[in-house]
Amino acid sequence: MTDRALVVVRAGALTTVQDRGRPGYAHLGVPRSGALDAPAAALANRLVGNPAAAAVLETTLDGCALRARSAVVVAVAGAPCPVAVGGRPAAWGAPVAVPAGELLEVGAALSGVRSYVAVSGGIAVDPVLGSRATDLLSGLGPAPLTDGTVLPLGTAAGPYARVDVAPQPSPPTELVLRVTPGPRADWFTPEAARVFTTRAYRVSSASNRIGLRTEGPALERARPGELPSEGMVLGAVQVPPDGRPVVFLADHPTTGGYPVIAVVRAADLPAAAQAVPGTPVRFVTVRRR
């Protein structure tokens, strides 16, 4: 039994191990996966002195609680939330020392959806296809955390950052997604194209790591029937039969048969990961680069 480990005391609604994902396997039907808010995960790693590829924990809405078997340094980034060590308030967005045996509590998000917990040395679960990321669609990687799970840690790689609080973008009060026309934009009427980029949608509570679902006006198709399955990319905006756009996120399927009206710029997807249900969504067409 290693002392370099965390014990999960409270797993929360959905807490998973994430890193930068497993790119390059789409031809085998394996999504990239990885942290939905990649900049927040990278910042948390930098704060504790980890390399960028180190695995972190991604919480969803209500945080988690972890007991350290040995002294570690942690940092929580992403969605702002209360942090406590041994029952005492600790900093969010900054390195925090957790003595051996103490409880780290990551509270419910005050805004946004997902917080990222980095630990010095990184979460050292066994990699699958070169990544430690949990993929909810394919089932690859470690299972979502449950109470009592023991998470092994790697060896601390470097000194942690000396900062009071690292600046981070606030979760969006309105989600603006820049899009370029998709490969099946011609499957929709001119009126649907106008509605898509001029009307407001809202984030649906049915959203998850696979896709951000929206509520709002349905998009009318110009063609009946369905497509044969074809390749899907991160950020693809697929329109299922109900006509409401779905933005594919990290655990998205690699193929699909519903038409893709547009593709969201990759730089806008971290904000999508932090948009709570009910957040207004606007799609804005931009030129291809």
Describe the fold and architecture:
With 289 residues, the protein is mostly beta strands. 8% of the residues lie in helices and 28% in strands. The chain has three helices and 20 strands. The strands form four sheets. The protein has a seven-stranded mixed barrel. Strands 7-6-9-4-1-11 form a six-stranded antiparallel β-sheet, with no helix packed on it. The chain is elongated and about 65 Å long.
Task: Describe how the helices and strands are arranged.
Blueprint lengths: L4 E6 L5 E3 L19 H10 L8 E3 L5 E5 L3 E7 L4 E3 L2 E3 L5 E3 L4 E4 L8 E5 L30 E3 L22 E7 L8 H9 L2 E3 L7 E5 L14 E2 L4 E3 L7 E3 L6 E2 L3 E5 L4 H5 L6 E6 L4
Parallel strand pairs: 12-20
Antiparallel strand pairs: 1-4, 1-11, 2-3, 3-10, 4-9, 5-8, 5-10, 6-7, 6-9, 12-19, 13-14, 13-20, 14-17, 15-18, 16-17, 16-19
- The H-and-E topology, N to C, reads as EEHEEEEEEEEEEHEEEEEEEHE
How many strand elements?
20
User: If you average the pLDDT, what whole number results?
Assistant: 95
Distance between the termini: 52 Å
Q: Indicate the structural class.
A: mainly beta
**What is Rg?**
20 Å
Uncertain residue ranges? none
Largest sheet: 7 strands, mixed, barrel
What's the helical proportion of residues?
Answer: under 10%
Q: What general form does the structure show?
A: elongated
Put simply, the count of helices is: 3
Estimated share of beta-strand residues: 25-35%
Task: Walk across the major sheet and give the strand order.
Answer: 12-19-16-17-14-13-20
